[in-house]
Amino acid sequence: MSENKNISSVLKSVNKPGRYIGGEYNRVMKNKEEVKCRFAFCFPDTYEIGMSNLGVRILYDVLNSDGDVWCERVYAPWEDMREKMKEYGIPLSAVESGDPLTAFDMVAFSLQYELCYTTALGMLRLAGIPLWAKDRAEDCPIVIGGGPCVFNSEPIAEFFDLINVGEGEEVLLEICHLYNEMRDNGSYTRAAFLRAASHIEGVYIPSLYEVSYNEDGTLKEYKPLYPDVPAKIKKRIIADLDTAPYPTKLVMPYVETVHDRIVLEVYRGCIRGCRFCQAGMVYRPIREKSPETLCKTAKCLYENTGYDEISLISLSISDYSQLRDLTDGLLSWTDDAHVSLSLPSLRIDSFSEELMQKVSSVRTGGLTFAPEAGTQRLRDVINKNVTEEDLMHAVGIAFRGGKSGVKLYFMNGLPTETLDDIAGIADLAKKVVRTYFEMPKNERPRGISVTVSVSCFVPKPFTPFQWERQNSLEELVQKQQHLKGCITDRKISYKYHEAKVSRIEGVLARGDRRLAPAIALMVERGAMLDAWDEYFDYDKWMSAFADAGVDPDFYTTRGFALDEVLPWDIIDCGVTKEFLLRERKKAYEEKTTPSCAEHCNGCGANKLGGKNKWCN
Predict the structure, then answer these.
(1) Percent of the chain scored above 90 by pLDDT?
(2) CA–CA separation, 164 vs 191, rounded Å?
(3) At CA 437, angle to CA 431 and CA 438, rounded to 5?
(4) What is the pLDDT at residue 228?
(5) Non-local CB neighbours of 385 within 8 Å, separated by 6+ positions
(6) Summary count for the chain: helices (H), strands (E)
């Protein structure tokens, strides 16, 4: 935090002062008088969450590798610190230098979840930076948005000067270099810089587009204000992950974070085509890292951090084509070092006894699988491509391997779903329990617990279901209660996501620029940390929508026409609308599509390039 005569007393009176003091091992310190561009990387959540985010770790390392750029970290303060900051006039500041955000050239936010929007904008208010891009003076920092949410950035577009669509390792440095060049040659003004930045692939400047609407309220068109501004923004990708930068030193926190472990990104993209999954579409094409690169990185990170767990992450880790070579390479030294391997995204149909033994080489615990739907019919609709037999085979392996706890992830509110599909979730959980008791006692662990966790489906942009209506609040609650009544076995516990949260998420995920005044009202009324259950306030959101003249149903339960201009049509994520329409048609025909490993299905992502072996 910034130097202030009251700072010592403030830190003593707040929970977890380690969130704010800085000074961590491996943090990057530079002489601010010797760098040309000061970059504040803001994570709109608490320190414990932000310090665990892999994207922030990667981009912090990338930006600080440039001698002319100093990237510092900024996190959202908890409520107690926020109140003290307001009381004593302490502005939001960077962890490394303690300087306020107004001292920076760039202030960038990683937008991971729609309900973090109010937190990001609340951080701007705490920093004394105007909320709306149009209100910022010439000497204000350039406010940047990035992360998965910007694939539909329209609800928050008018708050950001610049939006980075896609992967940021290359484009953020290009933005900084352009800024430095224009500062050096004397051509910099905010307007001139933003106009020039619009020429960088993957950069979206919302203020350079005029948006018009039809009489029925639907979008009419996005029109660039100048002929040199692109009509559509093509996302950026990193072509070769083996040569891409990856941090080998991590900033070591003073307080416990959500993920205190080494995180190895194995590959980007997904060979599956689950029709509900936005990440599986927008992160295409698939690009893998080699086992050699991963093993070398893991060993280096272990030596630099001393962490005793390595988490292998991707959208579906068991789909990594060289998983055996990778795990064998890691186990050649992790067993002796008492370092455990964690594989958090296992698919049911590719789970094996060999894989479980490798995962369990040091620690034991429960396993998580995601059937997503309770009946085969609905799993075919969403193109999950797993069967009940796959699940029973997987849990049988888990039980024989000593795992007594199994967690099953599902969704409710999926297109074509009926109450029979909802009841099928309970039936599937009962069959898992039955599989346990059908095993000989000497082959199974003592006790069994099956947790059924159900989230509410939100039709996301750039998926085959992007046109679908979202179930109403009443429909979602009815389905939740129906499933509750179907679960009668005490060995099965049931958890479900709050339907009210999903409804607001749906509005923000599918909205356009007309939502901005409602979001601004929420911020003015003190909303922050909405992603936390204790701070989410559904009634406050509904009041803000009403006061701003926004009808939430227009973006959710209405659904979208197939020929309608969508708020996110200004973005080219690589996957074509024609492919998404084909997949939607197959969903209603209850037909599945094979994975990219079996057959190229012509999604269009091959045009983006990238070093991979799947795209034609």
Answers:
(1) 87
(2) 17
(3) 85
(4) 98
(5) 272, 349, 379, 592, 594, 595
(6) 19, 19
Residue that is written with structure tokens 């060995």 in the block: 491
Pick the CATH number of 7-234 from 3.50.50.60, 3.30.310.10, 3.40.50.280, 3.30.450.40: 3.40.50.280
The residue to which tokens 């510092």 are assigned:
72
d(CA 595, CA 607): 19
Distance between CA 246 and CA 370 in Å, rounded? Answer: 29
Look at residue 443 and give its three-state secondary structure.
Answer: helix
pLDDT value of residue 609: 83
* Mean pLDDT for the stretch of residues 574-591: 98
Rounded Cα gap, residues 274 and 381, in angstroms: 9
State residue 582 phi and psi, 5-degree precision: -60, -45
Structure tokens at 144: 């940047």
Read off the amino acid at residue 134.
K
The separation between CA 91 and the C-alpha centre of its own chain, rounded to angstroms, equals 28
Count CB neighbours of 306 within 10 A: 11
CA–CA gap between residue 217 and residue 549 (Å, rounded): 12
Q: Omega before 100 cis (within 30°)?
A: no
Whether 318 shows a pLDDT value over 90: the answer reads no
Residues with Cβ within 8 Å of 576's Cβ and at least 6 positions away in sequence, in order, are 603, 604
Cβ atoms 369, 408 nearer than 8 A? yes
pLDDT above 70 (res 348): yes
For the chain, what is the radius of gyration of the CA atoms?
24
How high is the pLDDT of residue 347? 83
Q: Would you call 116 exposed, middle or buried from its count of C-beta atoms within 10 A (0-12, 13-18, 19+)?
A: buried
Fold that domain 240-362+587-616 belongs to in CATH: Transcription Regulator spoIIAA (3.30.750)
How far apart (Å, rounded) are the C-alpha atoms in residues 261 and 342?
Answer: 10
SS (H, E, C) 285-327: CCEECCHHHHHHHHHHHHHHHCCCEEEEECCCHHHCCCHHHHH
Backbone angles phi, psi at 264, to 5 degrees: -110, 115
Above 70 in pLDDT, residue 616? no
Cα separation, 170 vs 181, whole angstroms: 17
Alpha carbon of 31 to those of 26, 61, 65, 71: distances in Å? 16, 17, 14, 12
The domains spanning 7-234 and 240-362+587-616 adopt the same CATH topology: no
Residue ranges per structural domain of the chain? 7-234, 240-362+587-616
- Single-letter code of the amino acid located at 351: F
Q: Which residues pair with 238 in a beta bridge?
A: none
- H/E element, 393: helix 388-400
**In sequence order, which residues have a C-beta less than 8 Å from that of residue 131 and are 6 or more positions away?**
121, 124, 125, 159, 520, 523
Contact in structure between 498 and 487 (CB atoms under 8 Å): no
Across 267-271, 338-342, 512-516, 600-604, least confident range:
338-342
Closest C-alpha to 521, from 495, 498, 504, 542:
542
The answer to whether the beta carbons of residues 26 and 251 sit under 8 Å apart is yes
Residue type, 89: G
Contact (Cβ atoms closer than 8 angstroms) between residue 16 and residue 253: no
Residue 486, both tokens: 């179907």
Checking if the pLDDT of 464 tops 90, the result is: yes
Can you read off the two tokens belonging to residue 267?
Answer: 């590959």
